[in-house]
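so my prof wants the structure for this chain in the tokens format not the other one, which i didnt know existed until like an hour ago. anyway here's the sequence
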Amino acid sequence: MRDSIINKLKNGVASRASKKYTKKLEISTDSNMPMVNHKCQFNAVHAVKHKNAVAVIECIMIGDRDCTAHYINLMSDGRIIDYTLGWAWSGADYRFVRYVPDSEYENIDDSLCDLKKTLCGKLPWYCKLLRVDKWDLC
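here's what i got, hopefully its the right format
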């Protein structure tokens, strides 16, 4: 039952996100190996700080029944690269949220938390009983 409720909530979050964030992004691949970890926000900031990219892009990836808050990079030639997931996700439905100002790089986890709050909104009262939080949903 808990999984069913979580799936329903995820579907609702994805539906709202799809309507709110309409600008789709084309992702290019790069010869660098993806990091394939769960720290996209740090990977994206690292790429800018080490001159491998010029900007951090906050985005969401929309799946069939869910969505994920995510961070990728803008390159100097205009391409957009995902250093975390790489080529395996290049066909995914990435949606632009915003360019992250460099003033947020040192506290990029706060930016991620804010995006998740925006995506999930206020959760229904029963989520607390089921121990469901925003981290489970996006």
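also thought this was worth mentioning. The chain has one domain: 2-137.
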